[in-house]
## 1
Amino acid sequence: MMRKLFGTKQDRDMRALKPILAEINSLEPKYQAMSDDELKNQTQIFKDKLQKGSTVNDILPDAFAVVREAGRRVMNMRHFDVQMLGGITLHQGKISEMKTGEGKTLTATLPLYLNALAGKGAHLVTVNDYLAQRDSHEMGKLYNWLGLSVGVIIANMDDEDRKAAYQADITYGTNNEFAFDYLRDNMKFDLNDYVQREHHFCIVDEVDSILIDEARTPLLISGPSEGDTRLYGVVDKIIPKLVKDTHYTVDEKAKSSVLTEEGILKVQELLQIGNLYDVRNIETLHHVNQSLRAHTLFKNEVDYVVRDGKVIIVDEFTGRMKEGSRWSDGLHQAVEAKEGVEVKSENQTLASITFQNYFRLYSKLSGMTGTADTEADEFMKIYNLEVVVIPTNLPMIRNDQADVVYATRQAKYEAVAKLIEECHKKGQPVLVGTISIESSELISNVLSSKGIKHEVLNAKNHAREAEIVALAGQRGGVTIATNMAGRGTDIKLTAETKSLGGLYIIGTERHESRRIDNQLRGRSGRQGDPGASKFFLSLEDDLMRIFGSDRIKGIMVKLGMKDDEPIEHSMITNAIAKAQKKVETHNFDIRKHLLDFDNVMNEQRKVIYKIRRDILNDEGNNELIQDFIDEVAFELAAQYQPEKKGTVRDFPWDEINQAAKNAFGVEQTLTPEECSQKHKGELADYLREVGATSIQKKFEGFDPEQVKYTYREVLLATFDQFWKDHLLAMDHLKEGINLRSYGQKDPLVEYKREAFTIYENMKFAIKRAVVERISHIKLMTQEEIEAIHREQEKLLQAQLKAHQDAMAAEAMAEEKKIIRATVKVGRNDPCPCGSGKKFKSCHGA
């Protein structure tokens, strides 16, 4: 009754779109009357309108009408009305469900052209390199004719070509390449090396495949967590040579240990390096700090135990061993080196993102596919994408027959082979869909035994796949393929094969998702063509075996049915539909679970990547460091200012002075008198002022460009190091978090809580490390650099002279050997070398 009163959702969607379509159609005569040059000039006219304040919605009817007319002239392809409807839907940031063969590739040209006019780029994402290259080449003719540039992103391209492709008005590429380029960009050290620009507008082709089927696996860029583990062993050897309170101080309450000025000099001497705080030595400094912590703060049989050559953490609350857990930030390796066990390198995540969160970066996202309606709820919940079902250009006349179920898999395959043989004899083309390579090979063997020529497809060769699928509609053609094979390529029928009944689709098993079954059926019956589809099942199929096949088999036995007799019953069909729905729900839960966890990281990732870009752009680096100084000063004040109220003199000034020296490189002595007089006893203000002044004086007299470069490099190196370590810590947290459910705790809530704590700790650790590194770094004047060069040149010359002397001595020794071996001469006779000396005092010596 409700549908009769208000219509279906599809009816309502079409009612909203048809007025726009009518306006586009009314403009067709206007643009048909234009010359080629006049039509091409419309692109610049549209751009000018957008510059003057018009919106893309204002120019949509004209822009779509121009693309339709250009398509007719350039490619002899005029957009159908249903393609116009699909194009409007895509422009509105929705998913356009269009059946196979309705021309999604041509449909996408409409919104891509319109949204590219803003000059911010428009992307089309597809499932493989072959389709990206094919579509960019074929549709590129249309865009180029209208004055827009086209690029394509495929595997193994260098950064220069990638950047050029992203700078094009319209860019085609695969989901993996787009997402990995985003991650790689945010690991680079120069903004000029970034290949992507802003994420403006994107159409995802085969949107269900990319945003649902592939959404269960996050994209990761991994690498060794700390590079060469041998450095841990090298650094570990020097720590016992340091003396407490002379070379380092330990604060057990704050669980920290810090090198003193003397300690820094001692470490530099032991490691034979110049400046420990030089940007080039940041990795070594990190190892020294962690090794110092391992030796001074972490005790065997208290914080950890050593069992079977492994360092196992002891839970500080329960006293139990935490098998499989590892400290992050290189601390675990430092403890391993201290205990003399194998130092294990870890493959850690350097960057990660899910497809869900990558595609949500776009200001406007849309998608198209032949099968999205079954996942409409998920698209709305995860991506806020509405699914609009576009009607077919011509009525669908494909004959979708009822499923048939056999007792055994062998009986099913025999029935499938029999139907293929019948179709093959009369010349009707057949496409056989399987859900595994194994099934494809079984059917192929059966057909080979019957002498039926056929093609077998898998997803390994996309170019070959497209070629075979394109020819699958020829007379007598038999093609066996996995259900996903051939997507994006039309199976074209000849007039003869249309008269023979069109393409016959045979499904050999129900997929766990109804959508995949619909994709297979959708290969037939395109553009009003004839066709048929039928699914053959057996009680031994996974889906049937799991859901009540024993009971059904019992009924078949009671009825006296043979293995090769099929059963057709609504109960079977309903059971399959329920099974598929249950599996779809389970898979949705997995994807939702992954997204819930990645959402926590996503907010952190966006903040870090934004800060990183600003650092590279030298936007506010001075102010950022000043903020860090303020926060470190505040944190130190909170740590050393007594909780009980008292006078400023009651503060632990020896500890405060040491902390200020470690954190800010302060040379002056801080006193309670100065704190009272200048800052009214506020320790945080006092520390903030002396810290800022100390760092300011450090860089006085240096070239501002040199200082700016130093700030940028220290900030970047520190952020990258701590972000990398943070990702490793988050990986370890995620690995064990689901065990919290045994303690009646929600793992997601626990993950969010602990992730927040880890993130906050990382943020302060970055601030502290940046301030310490800036405070202790040593810049050199031009005179000092030249003096070092002179010293290096002197040293080089001395080394060269020593080398030449050694070579001369070696030559002399060789000459002596030869003379001794070849000349008979007395010791007091003149030396044969002609020196005038006696032999005994020359070569005879």
Note: Residues 188 and 194 are 7 Å apart (CA to CA).
## 2
Amino acid sequence: MDGKDQASICWQLLLRIDSMVLTGMISSEEASKMRRLVMDHKVSIVDAFTDILQKKDAEVLAELRQFSYRSKKSGFHIVHICTEMAPIASFGAVASFVTGLSQALQRKGHLVEVILPKYGSMNLNEVQGLREIEVEYYSYFNGQLHGNKIWTGVVRGIGVTFIQPLYYSSFFNREKAHGYSDDFERFMYFSRASLDYIVKSGKKPDVLHIHNWQTALIGPLFWDIFVQQGLEGSRILFTCHDIYAQSLVQPEKIALCGLDPARLHRPDRLQDSSNTHLANTMKGGIVYSNKVVIMSSTHSKGRIIHSLSHGLETTLNMHKEKLLVAPYGFDSSAWDPQKDKILPENYSADDMKGKAVCKIALQKKLGLAENSSFITVGCFLSDLSDVDTENLREIVQNATKMGVQFIFMTTGEVTSRHKELESLQVKIEDENVRFINRYDETLSHLIFGGSDIILCYSLHDPILQVPMKAMRYGAAPIAITTNNNNGLRHFPDHDYETTKLAMFINSTFGYLSFSQALDEINNNPSEWNHKVLDAMTKDFSWDAECCDIHISAYTAINSL
């Protein structure tokens, strides 16, 4: 190949990178790194991309990332095997976590990909370069091999593989992603099919990252069946987002994916501690993983093991040396008052003048009295809200007598829960209160920007990340309680194995009830402002503590 041809291929690659930026497949920061990669490795990269014209952008992107990974040899190759991912399949806390953490990891030089079921209800418009792989592969289930189709694409800069069962086509071609009597069989099939695909494709990831009970059986599947099929260098990290949902099943059911119930149904393996005749799927994930990360933005390791384990205390205590606790993060590129294009005026901890402008704009938009000195309180209520509405009514009515303004916004679909809130709206009927009975993304930015306090149903909010966004926007997150007249009682947890976020939010805002927060604003404004400004400067994004803890877990298990 002469110099002209080499230059041509390099330029084709560089122009493809331009295209990826323009179509939103990658960020400008990643594009800059990729361009440097092309320029620094011209000879070897030309040899790897001689057939670039025949490939789609998604394929080229995946190969560039693989090349980057091989050239650095310092980052980890991580494969998430999960059942949801934002924004294409968002059903709970896992969705935003997988996308947010994966993007953060890639920004730090790691190669990350995701394997998902191909749901019939999936929003595929968000997938760049979606294509069906022209090869069928087989996976074991219920004593036979069954065919699957593979689809690939890129979601927010992350390579994604979708598995579509052929014989069991009804498993994921349904109106909802979960909530069916055969959920265990569906996700067990997906777990086994994911491992069969990884072996078939020749991938040798450093880490298989699994989530919740839905893919917890990958732990025993890996060690009992797959570790000897070319995955000897891989390790398992299990992230638990919901300890309460454990999936108890008849032991014989785990034989469907090729596991031996007699070998696994033991107290130190999958046998449930309380219901000894049943197998506990999540317990299997904890026992058979190299590291376990429990997601909690407010609780310590000790509190989780001894008070919030939902029957798994013995198992967690037995495996406590491999147990870590991590907080959730949020997308700091989309939620930053200094750069937020939705706000009428930007502001930062160094210059807060714009926040007063945002408050006036919020008051004007909602027809509230316009005065930047009025205390304004925002509140986002979802289907997960566990709020005593009578207590909330009393809080609001006591505060509005002092001129405090409230803006309530509901999130998600209209439910009976929202009807209860509509009833609350009728009971209050105050000129200082506004209800928005739908989720409006644009207005939510203005609520954060214009509020002094954000009332939270909990300081642990894995789905909307309201407390972290509130702190970033200079609004204090104060939790609502159901057992006292003042608002929150969220006692700090002094366990030494507590995340930085938990320590900060508990010690700064977690001990305050709503009435105490109002008293501090009115009677000790300098101390209050110091807290708010300090919170604004903290980085609780996906790139910070959440990412760091997971990288430390990957590092630890990779040396095993």
Note: Residues 482-493 have pLDDT under 50 and may be disordered.
## 3
Amino acid sequence: MQKGAIRVQTENIFPIIKKFLYSDHEIFIRELVSNAVDATQKLRTLASVGEFKGDLGNIDIEVKLDKEKKTITIADHGVGMTAEEVDKYINQVAFSGAEEFLKKYKGQESGTNIIGHFGLGFYSSFMISNQVEIFSKSWKEDAPAVRWECDGSPEYSLEETTKTERGTEIVMHVNEESEEFLDEGRIRSILTKFCKFLPVPVKFEGEQINNVAPAWTKKPSELTAEDYQNFYKELYPFAEAPLFWIHLNVDYPFNLTGILYFPKITKSYEIQKDKINLYSNQVYVTDEVKDIVPEFLMLLHGVIDSPDIPLNVSRSYLQGDPNVKKINGYITKKVADKLDEMFRQDRKSFEEKWESIGLFVKYGMMTDDKFLDKANKFLLLEDVADGKFYTQEEYRTETAALQTNKEGKLVVLYSTNPVQQDSYIQAAQKKGFKVVKMETLVDAAFINNIEMKWDNVQFTRVDADIANNLIDKDENADTLLSKEQEETLKNLFTQEVNQPNIKVDMKGLTADLQPVIVTRPEFMRRMKDMASMGGGGMNWYANMPDEINMTINANHPVYLQILREKNNGLQQKQIKNLADLALLSQNLLTGADLTAFVNRSVELMSKEEEEEA
């Protein structure tokens, strides 16, 4: 039996690093600047524990571009390296100096702010270079400066050199395929993306490109409302001011800081996800945070920073880990608590923001049961009549007497378009019913979902039936017409409508209601709406004709006039027009049928003018 150590050879690993380790070549700037930050943070730690007794002096990190020489240089004034350290950390692939340093100085404040963990970041320089040089001078006294050079092959050279200042310079000789990185604008945009909030000053062309102490790194007690607003502008210069924000700050059982902003959202707003940026010790990682942030909060903006979120070696993707679930749950609780506090402390202000807040709340109630339990207290329903807001319990108290059906369920009447459904709303209000708005992007799904979660509640759209039938069917609505007139009228409608998907019925409603009322049964309409959005594998159902109930209000005075009409052709056209008007009110009259209705209407108006003349 043979035992031994598996050997990783550089001729095998360099092609992997160049092609596969980092999916995006611009990552090399993030990795090398992050290494420079680590070197500086290490020096700060050594100074804080008294091992480094010299003057820190200038600790800026500089990024330099030389188009003529085709080089990019990243220089720091950190701990530097001895020849032995270069051999240890550079020549031995994936031996992480950061990991070793963290173990030694665990507990020191600046020592825990080291970024690197894998020892592979430096090698990203070879993705864009045909030659890389390192010039380094250690902080240790009497340690000579060294120069290391490699062309990406297994061969390297290491020698003493002349360098007066402490720190490390990485000089990359850019290859032909990567000359895009010799553009000043390109480098500046990459630095702004990845290095905007690093904790050590980073300068490019003499200008500092980063804010070393962004708002999320400070305590909430140190910040004013103006500070939070200004930081939002720093993140999103052209965005409208946020509604409010939540400052995340936890150190157990995981480390997490950040600020989440609630943007202003309206019904017509083009929703943008991926507006939350993930950082690790102030280094930008990704805007793909769907595992960390609950799905319903993906519309939020802001920053999350956590060294405890596990990343793969290129820091570009999240890995499955219990900490991620804990962080997800913490953010959900923090948001729920904040909304509950806002509702209790200043309900008027909460109601004013509801148009935007409601989208998050309803989405959260559908997707997260823990959030649902808390949100039941501050979910608001807005009355279409006067804009008054009710909580679920307040609406139940106000409406239970009139809107509880025979099954003991509370019937929540709602409108998806108060303007279009105005006549139905008015009819419901005359019976003392309260109709609420349900017109946001998520309401259709919310209604279907919440009916299964709330006890003894049923949602019914205000135009799902005539007002008399919205709560319970009223079968005893007598008409003022004789039996013969009723039969004649129903035959006329049946003859003129003559569509298998339209069911004609006759009721004795009040004279001030419409002569014909068209409704679409709640259940069938919902099924069709879901099918039209591709839900439930029922796409075929979306193309089926709408199921329509056409109720004739036999007590409307217009029918006595029509029944007296001796001209059968004119009588039929009048009946047809009344039916089409009702269909039009529900946007159910289109194409050739709509054109015929317009032409018929003009014809009928012309006949009236002739008779008057």
Note: Residues 459 and 536 are 20 Å apart (CA to CA).
## 4
Amino acid sequence: MKFQAAISLLSLIAPSLGDQTNNSHPLDGSHRDNRSLINLKPQRTSTRELVSLDGLWNFALAPDGNNTSTWTDPLPKGLECPVPASYNDIFVDRKIHDHVGWVLYQRDVIVPKGWSQERYLVRAEAATHKGRIYVNDRLLVEHVGGYTPFEADITDLVKAGEKFRLTIAVDNELTFQTIPPGQITVGEATGKKTQTYFHDFYNYAGLARSVWLYSVPRQHIQDVTIVTDVQNTAGLINYDVKVSNNTTGEISISVVDEDGTIVANATGAQGTVSIDSVNLWQPGAAYLYQFEVSIVESGETLDTYSIATGVRTVEIRGTQFLINGNPFYFTGFGAHEDTTVRGKGHDQAYMVHDFQLRQWMGANSFRTSHYPYAEEVMDFADRNGIVVIDETAAVGLNIGLTSGTVGEAPSTFSPERINNETREVHAQAIRELVHRDKNHASVVFWSIANEPASNEEGSREYFEPLAKLTRELDPSRPVAFVNVGAADYEKDLISDLFDITCINRYFGWYSQTGDLEEAEAALEAELQGWEQKFNRPIIMTEYGADTVAGLHSVFGLPWSEEFQVDMLDMYHRVFDRTPAMAGEHVWNFADFQTSVGVRRVDGNKKGVFTRDRKPKAAAHSLRKRWTEMGASK
């Protein structure tokens, strides 16, 4: 299956995104409609300025009740919270750690005096899981969804050179109509709100990614869509540029190679540029061109924006996943944005170190389990030739899996739980994911959900329109979801809607616990069933065992480092006997925090590294396998 890259398809992509690129709702009728904004990641160019608002912000829990009129008052002194970071583990205060509801971040900001002829905006890269931006006392925008950016144009409210008070409110509540879903209960005796959720990682909250103040010219580039292809030795870049409504200048395109040489030019908002003797973006050997877009009028450059572009193709042929026409076998991990103290706060040092550890291991890929990662991570993957499976935050659409229900689990898809309203929120999450990450060469397919109840009645009605939407938004990449063990090849109701079989399996851990002989037989039967049902690639997107670092057993008993090695080795034997296997992602890269409860003691211990990135025995075992696999290619 060759995924389409013709320029005619770009007319499908942009209009599908245009009306609801960002789930941001401006709340002042006199203000510009932020839903019409198509958010290119801010960058500093000869025509644009960028000011980081990262650092210490004043912080407070929002007052209880529905009265929000005091939220924009100056916050009391005493608490300052770093941005980016989750707030939960920052303060030595159980009330803040366990808080359910809104919190307030606040700081003063000065718009640079030199921006008087520009438009300027405040942008939050993420607010988990709902965010509001206030300028002085005015609420400008509200955004739903914890892992994609939103912004507000403040040009008409604050003059260049003036100071304003910026307040960002963040709500961590999860309900059946959020992605991911959850449920809030209120204690009968205390009235205390408690958040439960159906995913196995901690519900860290706050401003975990950067906040920016940035400018664009009055005539500016709003969005760029790039789809690449290869014909013989030539690389093709199909493009579609969207500009502000008042733009009168001409669109000029230049493609610059890594030596700084212009290798192609074009004009116009849509078209195709060809690069002779193209250097392809390859797994493990990234090559990036700069795709430079400019608005030019009377010889003057009014705006310019550059996108790092890797030319590559993606194809599924039978049971093979092909990149640039060559079979690709995924090796790597699922992981979480998770570190001590910071929670999900993006940290450049951890990012670089984690990539170094992946490369040391011989891993060539990862899945953004179970939400879009910080865009800096995607840029870094582009530059380092690491392949990415890009996933929405739709984890937990399976009420019986982790709800702790005794007896028969309630149905997941129902008017009272996961319903049509949830699906609309899910659709918006897909729109925002595809819009944000569509130009990353590292992203080779979309995963629109992790472990939903795809064996339950109502799952097909829920997922069929979402699979269709994803293909309409981006016809150039395959679409997948990640299947849960209870929905095996006989019980699953939706896998035929997708292009790749991605499955999570824990034979030997959650079933056949400690009995690897029985587990091996069960795993092989499962993979054979999927192989016979669909003639397409199979990727094991999760497999692994909880392991306490330093715990050893001469018998290789569960929880020991020896058992983790033995269990992974068993899986690999089966993978190597399965022709349709196209990849293996161990769960997990590193130990991570989860909700407090009797099921987890200080988090999930399935990492092959500890939470502070010390290797367990399995890390060395995997390194040997993956580096030998890489050397044999």
Note: Confidence is low (pLDDT under 50) at residues 6-22, 25-37.
